[in-house]
Amino acid sequence: MRGFLSLITCFAILQNVRGWREFSRGRSKGGNLGLPGGDDLVRGEHEKVTTEWFTQYLDHSSPTDSRTWKQRYFVNDQYVNQRRDVAFLMIGGEGEASIQWMTKGAWINYAKKFNAICFQLEHRYYGKSHPTADLSTENLQYLTSEQALADIAYFIEEMNVKYELSPNVKWIAFGGSYPGSLAAWVRQRYPHLVYGSMAASGPLLAEINFSEYFTVVYNDLKGTGGDKCVSAVKQAFYQVDLLTRHMVGQRNLDKLFVLCDSIAGTTSSSEDIANLFETLNGHFAETAQYNKDNRMSKVPNNITLDTLCNIMVNDKLGPEVNRLAAVNDLMMKRNNQTCLDYKYDKMISDMRNVSWGSEVSEGGRQWYYQTCTDFGFYQTTDRIPLDFFIKQCSDIFGPKFNLTIVERGVQRTNTLYGGLNPSVTNVIFVQGSYDPWHALGINKSTKLYPAVVIDSASHCENMYSPSVYDSEALRQARIQIEEFIGNLLKSA
Ligand SMILES: *[C@@H]1O[C@H](CO)[C@@H](O)[C@H](O)[C@H]1NC(C)=O
Ligand SMILES: *[C@@H]1O[C@H](CO)[C@@H](O)[C@H](O)[C@H]1NC(C)=O
Ligand SMILES: *[C@@H]1O[C@H](CO)[C@@H](O)[C@H](O)[C@H]1NC(C)=O
Ligand SMILES: *[C@@H]1O[C@H](CO)[C@@H](O)[C@H](O)[C@H]1NC(C)=O
Ligand SMILES: *[C@@H]1O[C@H](CO)[C@@H](O)[C@H](O)[C@H]1NC(C)=O
Ligand SMILES: *[C@@H]1O[C@H](CO)[C@@H](O)[C@H](O)[C@H]1NC(C)=O
């Protein structure tokens, strides 16, 4: 929500990114699972992927509501053999589905090995899958994880017929981040349709006050740059806090962080200040969440926790707050941002846009709605209080969306699915220990299911294609996951 260009640059001939910052609330623009990196597409392979549309019910909870809409999906049937008895489903999530995943990523390697037909179903309300005419609060009532799971169930039934799959076909679901949770829940809810799942980095527990998120980020900084890095970062935020409190300091902040709107001489609300802290904290959060993964990237993917810690401990750059400003410069440059936004009202006004053509329709508005009604997941710190997030629910979606509603939604989600104790089999839960989201995921095997925590790995790291930079722990995890899928497909 920061980084919209200020009015000054309305002659935007420069290829600037306006509107949303690349990362907020632990969510990347476009969705949390990035695009798979690695080799360029093998010519010919990509051409065999087809884009299709499925007629889906709007409201699965109502047997008398006959309204339908078109849900997008991709199919790749070049690896399946004549038996047609293995089907893989990549579950779409909180961003547009990408055709890139249809020929790349770890699951494609498994599909080649196990002769699977591959489907990817875009999540309702994201990408090009528009169930309603716009994104009004009223229309968003059909955006729930339960509706998304029912979408998957109807989809599977139809695909079995349309693609003439074997009566004994085994569907294996794959998902990373929120779809990681969906992958587990769809097996739990529809075991007659889904035989097993690989659930990567799924936050299975809904939680309002997700303060553990930044605890993990700080642990990662410690693991990377030691106590020196952590104390420099803490000191820098302390200095920013002091500077917000007086005029001379505020002028410094304007310059240091290239603020779009001057903080000096204007009245800043407590939400503006929380917003500023959230943006600056976000630089570390994003870097931790995606540290050293093998995503495909429009921009050099070379900003890691090492990069940030090296800057933060470099006393040649001046006091800690100046080093933080250097981190901010680096991230702004990478995002093509010319100034840093922090104004709360600007952000809210963007988020209120209900048009499919708006910038927030890439998923920012939809995902925020899901946090207000289903999940919470608010990444609080000492300086970014819970009220700041709850206020956004009511400011964006209406006064009805207050703490009571969020609490009820979170309780409902955990009641529906069982939180960290789901009753589910044939699912492998995969986490990265550096991924801040792992704090809400399953990290321990039980009699029902295995769980793998990959040391020092980031968000959904195992879903990208193997790379020469893979750690030994990641390599081992990849083997374990492949064996798990192999065993599912072997057993009668
Ligand atoms: C959120 O959790 C943190 C850490 O446990 C705690 O300090 C804070 O008071 C909590 N906030 C609210 C509003 O409960
Ligand atoms: C990342 O790579 C780009 C282009 O190769 C280079 O200009 C930039 O300095 C690198 N950044 C870091 C932090 O290494
Ligand atoms: C920044 O601009 C460059 C050059 O136009 C472009 O290649 C790159 O994708 C842009 N980066 C982002 C994050 O949009
Ligand atoms: C919503 O976004 C669209 C597309 O960017 C824009 O044309 C429209 O003016 C915006 N609406 C409001 C109310 O800001
Ligand atoms: C939320 O709003 C409802 C009425 O719509 C009210 O009963 C409830 O007390 C409010 N909750 C909070 C925490 O303000
Ligand atoms: C595993 O998850 C439990 C429950 O959330 C948590 O208490 C524990 O600290 C986690 N262990 C690790 C190593 O993350």
TrEMBL record:
One of its GO terms (molecular function) is serine-type exopeptidase activity. Keywords: Glycoprotein, Hydrolase, Protease, Signal. GO terms for biological process: proteolysis. Coiled coil: none annotated. Residues 1-19 form the signal peptide. InterPro entries: AB_hydrolase_fold, Peptidase_S28, Ser_carbopepase_S28_SKS. It holds the Pfam family Peptidase_S28. Gene3D superfamilies: alpha/beta hydrolase (3.40.50.1820), Serine carboxypeptidase S28, SKS domain (1.20.120.980). It comes from the Eukaryota. PANTHER family: PROTEASE S28 PRO-X CARBOXYPEPTIDASE-RELATED, SERINE PROTEASE 16. Belongs to the peptidase S28 family. This is Serine protease K12H4.7. It comes from Callosobruchus maculatus (Southern cowpea weevil).
